[in-house]
Design goal:
It contains eleven helices and ten strands. By secondary structure, the protein is of the alpha/beta class. The protein has one domain (about 5-285): Aldolase class I (TIM Barrel). It has an eight-stranded mixed β-sheet with strand order 1-2-5-6-7-8-9-10, with helices on both faces. It has a two-stranded parallel sheet with strand order 3-4. Helix 4 (about 80-90) packs parallel to helix 5, helix 5 (about 110-125) packs parallel to helix 6 and helix 6 (about 140-150) crosses helix 8 (about 175-190). The N and C termini lie far apart (about 45 Å).
Amino acid sequence: MLPRPEWLRLRNIQAPNIDFVEDLIAELGLNTVCREANCPNFSECFSRKTATFLIMGTNCTRNCRFCNVRHDQPQALAPGEPRNVALAVSELGLKYVVVTSVTRDDLPDGGAGHFAETVMEIKEASPGTAIEVLIPDLMGSFGALETIAGSAPDVISHNMETVEALYAEVRPQAVYQRSLDLLRNVKLLDPGIRSKSGFMVGLGESGGQVMELLGDLRGVGCEFVTIGQYLAPSKQHFPIHEYIEPSRFEEYGAAARRMGFAFVASAPLVRSSYNAGEALAACGPQM
């Protein structure tokens, strides 16, 4: 693996809040993508008493080559999970929460009903909390997306993850156009819901391919975008082809803003749910 450059060195944060968050999550039987995906920012987020909740188990029905989440037989849905997520949000005092999931191609609705129930439970327990759902592609089901949109989250996010040319290698069970169509359909279903996507660089893409991806996202009305450095979880995962210089991230961010994205986060350690509330705080709800 390539040696990690200085701008990607992580600080080791020790804070009492980390243990508090870990204990609360364990007590309620919940999971976080922070831990399951081995996010480099987890200790910083936990120290601020925030986390991104991972619902519907920890086993994914897909096997994307970049992802640290386990590919295995899916687990039974926990009926009390939506309510427990809401309890955690209330206990942590979150003003903004991101809820994501493993991909559940085994479920008829892809887990849309479970997402919607979770959103509604959070709204009941914490009426002032803004909610972002980071969802899988739902196998392209308009009806499943309609179920999620009907629960009225503030933001629906779906990550493109990489450029179109790398889909076959990096996410062979996903379809580039299907993901774009999902983001387009968010705005068709409810123009008041903000749409968001994120992707990684450093997997071997060209600058031109990044520009094409950004253009495709704007073409389907995507409003918020995040761009971060790919970090391979292990030697068995898709290899890092390049560490992208911070100055190039600034160039990508500037290009995205010129294209008309309402909010852009572009830096090596940016992740789709890291400081996610900044976008809505900066831009406000869609009118």
